[in-house]
Amino acid sequence: MIHRECGVLKTTYEADMALYPLPIARWTVAAIAVFMFVVLPLGVHEYYLSIVNLVSISIVGALGLNILVGYTGQISIGHGAFMSVGAYTAANFAVRLGFPFWLSLPLGGLMAAGVGAVVGIPSLRIKGLYLAIATLAGQLLIEWTINHVTFISGGVQASIQVPRPELFGYQIATQRQMYFFLLIFVVLALVATLNLVRSRIGRAFIAVRDHDIAAEIIGVNIFRYKLLAFAISSFYAGVTGVLYTYYQGIANYEQFQIVTSIDYLAMIIIGGLGSVLGSVFGAAFVTLLPIAIRYAMEASGGLLFSEAAVRNLIPNLRLILFGALIIFFLVVEPEGLNRLWRNIRNYFRVWPFAY
Q1: Tens-digit pLDDT profile for residues 111-140
Q2: Which residues pair with 167 in a beta bridge?
Q3: Which fold has domain 37-350?
Q4: Residue-range domain boundaries for the chain
């Protein structure tokens, strides 16, 4: 009826490695593609497209952090710093040397990958909370460097104005144009991550996460793959920083402080560690949560509090909910929103049967 699984009938390696082996999965992906590329951009106001654009940027960064934390098991609190490295690298190339975005963007990602690999060197000897503190030190060090070295940050207020990206001489300025621009990078990041985690490198990452000593015994080069995980994750972070800089039109270190790193950790924890789809769920959830809180407080808060009190409550309530949600998902559902989706999907896979 809907071509659900009925035994293992794969006869080739290509069929076994297919991303979407079932027709229903391919139809679903095609329907989502039509919705994202046609229905949503043409039927939604630009204000709501601006919110979707922020979600798109967050998805790229969450995918990168999930590769490091979820798939490789290396805790990092420096994701925001790697984003700032990519952002300022691209901003300097674009403003000082006049590089187009299609050159400054990969250069920002590569610079962030190099810095991330250096920050990841201690991961050979330390792990867990000790590694988290090491990446936190990297976050603070990079923040201080960008803020105080005027050659990098541009001097006063550490801000660099960046022109809008251009494609074939056509400037990408409106929210709808930026939506298509960012959506391309989201698709590329999703496809790249899905293929990475199924490859030999991805299997090595998972082996390091599950038991690094056993992985080393069977021949996995622990140091190489840990550094590679940091480099790939930082490359994603650098690209995210570049996209955010082009989207906002300015590179500023305040956009990539430790709060940003914590936000991305919340994304992958709430969405689901070690899950590509969980990164999407978490990025959307964490990005939309403050907006939903603001609307709710503005709608009902005025009945109990003054307008000034509502404005002060919104950021504090956001932090309280973040902490409560992280604790909730760690205790009740460690695999996050992705696990809830899998439960729903598995139910309909066997429906109308109970097993």
Answers
A1: 999 999 999 888 888 888 888 898 999 899
A2: 170
A3: ABC transporter involved in vitamin B12 uptake, BtuC (1.10.3470)
A4: 37-350
